[in-house]
Each structure stands twice: as C-alpha cells, then as structure tokens.
Amino acid sequence: MNETKQDGAGDVVEALCAVVPSERVTAAADIGEDLLHDEAIGIFGVRPLAMVAPQSSAEVAAVLAWANGTGTPVTVRGAGTGLSGGAVPEAEGILLSTDAMADIIEIDTDNSMAVVGPGVRLDQLDEALAPLGLVYPVFPGEYSSSLGGNVATNAGGMRAVKYGVTRHHVLGVEAVLASGEVITTGGKFVKATTGYDLTQLILGSEGTLAVVTQATLKLSPRLPHAATVLAPFAGMEEVTEAVPKVVASGADPMILEYIDMITLAAMGTTLGLDLGIPQEVKDTALAYLVVVLESAHEDRLEADTQGVAEQLAELGAIDVYVLPPKAATELIDAREKAFWVAKANNANEIIDVVVPRSAMPEFMNRISELASETASWIAGCGHAGDGNVHMSVFQGDPEVLADVMKRLYAIGMELGGAISGEHGLGTAKRGYFLELEDPAKIELMRRIKVAFDPNDILNPGKVL
Amino acid sequence: MNETKQDGAGDVVEALCAVVPSERVTAAADIGEDLLHDEAIGIFGVRPLAMVAPQSSAEVAAVLAWANGTGTPVTVRGAGTGLSGGAVPEAEGILLSTDAMADIIEIDTDNSMAVVGPGVRLDQLDEALAPLGLVYPVFPGEYSSSLGGNVATNAGGMRAVKYGVTRHHVLGVEAVLASGEVITTGGKFVKATTGYDLTQLILGSEGTLAVVTQATLKLSPRLPHAATVLAPFAGMEEVTEAVPKVVASGADPMILEYIDMITLAAMGTTLGLDLGIPQEVKDTALAYLVVVLESAHEDRLEADTQGVAEQLAELGAIDVYVLPPKAATELIDAREKAFWVAKANNANEIIDVVVPRSAMPEFMNRISELASETASWIAGCGHAGDGNVHMSVFQGDPEVLADVMKRLYAIGMELGGAISGEHGLGTAKRGYFLELEDPAKIELMRRIKVAFDPNDILNPGKVL
Description:
The structure is a homodimer. Chain A is an alpha+beta fold. Chain A has four domains: 2-100, Uridine Diphospho-n-acetylenolpyruvylglucosamine Reductase, domain 2; 104-221, Uridine Diphospho-n-acetylenolpyruvylglucosamine Reductase, domain 3, CATH 3.30.465.10; 225-339, Alpha-Beta Plaits, CATH 3.30.70; 346-447, Alpha-Beta Plaits (2-Layer Sandwich). Helices cover 38% and strands 19% of the residues of chain A. Chain A is built from 16 helices and 18 strands. In chain A, helix 13 packs antiparallel against helix 14 (398-414). Chain A starts with a helix and ends in a 12-residue tail after the last helix. At the A-B interface, strand 9, helix 6, helix 7 and helix 16 of A face strand 9, helix 6, helix 7 and helix 16 of B.
C-alpha cells in the first residue's frame, strides 16, 4: 500500500511539474507538518501526494485541468487558520497553497475598492489601507487569516453588527472552475442583476465549487475615533433585551459582544486581563455586554458614548464602565483570543451556532440544561448584536460529546438558527449538517456542486 | 391552431382547479390586459393559458408539482412594475400571481426584521414600519412594486450608496422549487456559513430558479432628519471626481445622484419641477449632483450638510443649493419618475448599465460618440454613488437601435461593468447578455438552472 502511494505521489509530482514550473511543486515528504491541518480542535493532519503553490490564475487553471482529467482531489489552503477542517487535504489528493498569490493588486481610492490575491493576509491589507483612511471592515478573530480563506468561509467577526460579513464586501472574484476555465464575476460595483450571482455562490463554499484567484473588495472610510463601554448585567436575558435598544438608538454600534462570567474569568487567568471590576460586581454579574462605537467626530463619539452608557444603566446594567483606550484594546484582543483560551483550557469542541439574536437567552438556557443533563461543561461568549454564539464544550467521552454536539445544533436550528455562523462546516460539522438539514436542500446543493465540479475534485469530503 | 389552444387552455384551467381551490384560477379570456405585460418599453403582452393566484406555499407547491409533471411554463407576476419583460408569461404557460400572498407576516422589533409575503408592496411595508421607527431601506424608483419582484430582480435604487441593494437586506426566503418541494433558506441572522447560500442564488434570478413565497428582511433604524444639496457642475468629470471625496468625508451620504442638463430640463417640462436655478447657471452647468444626507440628530445633520456644501464648492461646483424640504422632495420624486419622463418623451429604449463609478465619465463620453456616430440621441441620469447609469435612447430605426444597444452594453462591460444594475435581463436584455457574456459563465449558469429546474418550467425564455 505504502509503496503504491509513494509511486502515486512521485507520479503526481512529475505530472504537476509538467503543467507548472517545477519550483511551484513540493513533494509529499517535504511538506511541513503545519501545512497538513488547520486549527480545528482535535483535527489530524493528512499528508497529500504533493503541494503546489501557483503564481497565477493560469497556473491554477493548468493544475485544475490536470486534476480534473485525472480525478485528483484538490484542497486549497490559505493561512490555515480555519476552525472546521476545511483546509485539510486528502491523502490521495494535492494541496494547493495560495501563498504565492499574496499581492495586493490594486487599491482604488476613486471607487473605494481593493483587488487582492487570495494569499493576502488581513493584517497585510489593513496596513496598506490605514494610511489612505480606508478600512476593509471585516475583522474575524484572526488577522493573520488570508483573504482567500475569508472568502471561502464567508468570515464574520465582531463588526458584523455594523458592517455585515465577508459576503457583503466581496463584489467580485476571479475564479478557476474544476474544468480549468477561468471566470470573472461581479466587479467594481455594488449593484448588478445580470444573471445568477456566481460571486455569492462561490463565497462561503469552502473551496468546493471553484478556486478563487482574485477578489474585489469594497472598502469603507476608516473612522478615527472609537470608544468602548463595558456593562455587567445580572444575566443573559438582560443583555439580550438591551441589544435591540442600543441598535435602535441610532448610535450605530460597531461591536456588541457578550461575555459570560466564566469566560471573562478565564480571560483574566489565561491572558492576564484585569479590567479592575470590583469583586462585588463580579459576584453578581453573570453576563457582560461590550459596546464599541466609532465616529469621524470626537465630540459626537463622546455624546454617543455618554448616551449609550446612560441607556445601559436604565436597562438594568449593574454598573457601566467607559474603558480607557488601553483597557478597551486589551478587552477586545482578549475577546478575539477566546478561542485560544478555550483551546488552552482543553475544550473538546467549539461551536459557532447562529440564532436570531432575540433567541440567545433561550438558546443559552437550553444549553445549560443540556450541559447538566449530560454532565458536560459549556461556556462562552459571542456576538450579541448578531446572534452568533461561540461556546466551548468540555466533555471527555467522545460518544457523549457527539450526542451533545448534535443536540446543540438541533436546538440552534429549532430556534431558527444555523449550524455555523462563520467558521464553516468543513469536516468538523459536515456530519451534523447532513443529518440535521432538510434533505431537499442537501440534494439541491449536491446538484449545484455537480454543476460546478462534476468529477468532485474540489475539496471532496467537505461541506456536503 | 386557435382551437387547439383554446382546448389546451380549458384543460389547464380544469387541471389547476384540481390542485388548488377553483377561486384561485382565472381562465385565459378573463385575465385583464394589464396583467399580460410589465412596464418594459416596447413590450407586447402575451395571454397565457390561465392565471392562478395561490394563497400559500402549499398551493404554490401544488401548482408547480403539476406544472413540472406536465412541462407547463410558469411565469410569476408581482406588481408588474418590472422594466425588462421578466413577468411576461408564455402563451403555452400559466401566470402565477402573488397578489393573494400580500401579508406582512411579522415585524420583529427585537431582531429588527420583517417577514413578508411576496405580494406585499414597498409602500405598504413602509407604512407599517414608519410608526415603529424602522425602515426597509431599499427604495427603487417604484414604491408600488412588490417585495417578490424586488427579490426577483435584486432591486436597487438611489439609496444603494449607503444601504446596498435588495441582496444585502434579504436574509432568507421560503421558496418552492420546480419539483414542488418547499425549502426555507437563511433566517433571522446576518451571518451563516452553513452550505451554499441558496438565498443569494435565488435572489436576482428573475423567477427562473424558484418561486419565493416569503422573505425575511433586515430593517434599519429610521433616521428622522434629512437634507438635500444640489450642485451644478460644468460636466460629468467634475461630478465623478467629487463623489469619492464626499463618500470619504464620513458624512455617509444616503443618495448621490447625477442628472444631466437635458434630463433636468425635461423633468421641468414634463413634471413641472422648478428649482429656481438662475438661467446663467443653467447655461453653464452640464451635470448636476444631488447629495442627500440623513441623521438621527438635527444639529449633526446641519453641520454635515454645511460641510458637504463647502466641500462641493471647493470641488468646483458652479453653485451649491441646500434645498428647502418641499423642493428637495419634488426633486427626488422627479428623479424617481425619470423613467416615466423618458417613456412620455417616447424613448425607444432605456438602459441601466452599471460601471465602476470612476468610469462614468468615460462611459458617458463614449456614449456621446456612439450617439453622434449613429444619429441617436442619448440622455439621462443615474446613481453617481454606485455607477449605475440610467439613459434613454432615442433611435427610430429598429436595426440601428439594436446595434446601438449592443454597443452600449459592450462599452459598459469593457469598462468593467455589467449590462443591468437593477432592472434585470428579462427578455429585453437577454439576447445581448447571451451574445456578450463569457460563454463559460453562461454554460455554468445553465447547469445551475438545470440543478433547480430540469424541465425548464420556471420563467423559460428569460435571463438565459
């Protein structure tokens, strides 16, 4: 078996070197361990037959045409920061790295747009945009993630309450189909009703429909002033009730997050975060709401911050803190790192279920019941403004864990939600998705997959 | 032939009465003339075999299951305000009216969302939302249009520069597939990466992929204060140069429109609009920029309006007028009615090409050249903030007209744009689309169409 595989791998390297310059190709044995998996909890790396790092859409096209002809699976890898196993290759396939397509091709200030290669990192783009007074306002937790990965998973993050998610900022892509055909969709415009929206269909498809080789991104003015308000509440219900009122105030919050007391404490222990909250407040507050406002005008920001602070006090906050800039930055950084806190504490699973934001207390209550019933431990934080709940699940027994996960997802769907708000299905949630989702939709998605990729070469075994 | 058709029609009425209550069904001869066409210029009405007005998704499902089994074309009709012939039925098919599904099912203030039937009109929804301080911020020119039609065409309008288009506000749909299967996509959440985004794929597909029977809409806070600034400029270049600067100012304009001098004059003549612009300004201004700002705070609005007015003066505006509320309303109303002005003046065609907004002057220049070269007359207005150009084409010779249209679309695409920004392809632009678009994309769209509708019963002859 092993020998056969080695032969297969040798053949594949040779074949790839015949369609792209040989320096793009890495033999199986030379691929670094780190490239064999993403950051999903409990994931195992898989060594593919070879890795290729094309430099252009033409090279991607050559690779896919060959793979399609030979039925070789192709898994695309960006920065590898995914949390669902979407970038884990097949043992009998190849890994296609976007690292060599990491140029910011254009920043177009007239149209407030950027055109980027898929390997460009969020922090790299942000650094280029800051001096121009522009921002690509999608900030998922991991700024070292690649734009290609963001497109593949429709990355979200904390600012979605104001700015929406990746889907709302990608106006077009250049993509290579499984056949090797290169298409461009959309463009530097927000409006279009010119046939089916292929951009939106490819977006969030986790590398199963096409390989994105360029993306056109909509940019926003970079507002220079921001303020952060932290409000401890007695419980989740109070936080959830406050959210629509803050939204309706017109203060246009950029971030609305909740953090439960356990997670805040863990952030303190693991990350050294100390916000100076008095012990008597900590003792009574079960849930914290974080509101971040931004503005072009410092005076307006001050007035709005004051207004939101007063509003939260009226809505029953135990106390309200307008955080000094340093503490605010630390809190948001710590919140972004919540996943790593969970990982450091040996969480067995993480979820990113999305529910209607008003359904969050019920979701949390039912999760609590489920936790006690199954002797599991579930805690977390999440995007209060958009109903995206991030929880860590601690349950050592794999069989019980699988049951807990399935029931968690089922509860989310029952409350009108979806299994994944932003991480994607990959392999980690695929089984639950196939089991819980409407079969008519699964079958329709499978027919769409066939329309793009009849030989199932693009990231097989993911999503569907 | 006629007799055969009549027999067919009788059979169809009988068949429909067997699957839905007979009061939902209208025989061919009894369908009002107005229901046989939409508002596209030069369109001819077509009388279908019958019309059915189902009251529920279950009834739509019964109709589609029957149609799919018999291979009968089904064309959906909302308010019939479309401009591309998308709602014109087939002579050998049936018309499915959404008029009996016109309930606002829910306005959910906790989640800032509304759930509506496809027959709900924009003005009906707006009337229900206003007292709640909420707005569905997509305002295409025609407020009597139906939400179902808005979803089918991904309706846009003037506020897209701030709020985006229908695509950015529809979070989920209930839809019936050609097979009669009822699916629900998305939900009351902004984020999701849970399989392919069927919502976005159905959106803008002009009734060719599924019949939408419910839509979940994202609402925004209704800002109470608005101000309108009108600035005459020497030409289109100056208008276009001013636009990104106004956007970058952080004043967050809701509307950024340009109107050419000919169209403004025609609005005066046809609609009686008089803005009191001095003759010497009219004599030198070839293009006008309209900026509308809105705010939750009157004082901030005043400051921003002042700021934008000063900015426009610095950017070379011949003069700047902050319009009194009545004149502002009249101007925006007149701008919304620009299509009717074109129709009243016997335009032979209208276009709604979208180009990158910075490419508008070049687009206009090349259109001018095309107009002189072909002895045509082309004038218009458009959404300066998003590059969506609305022009009327006057050219009496049908053969020359077809050539002019094709070249117009080709120029738009060459500049990185698309054939239709918001009206859709329907039948009016289908031929140009099929001729000018990348065949690889056309074929991919056709495979997607087959994935949804293998027997081609849903609005055949439209889009693809």
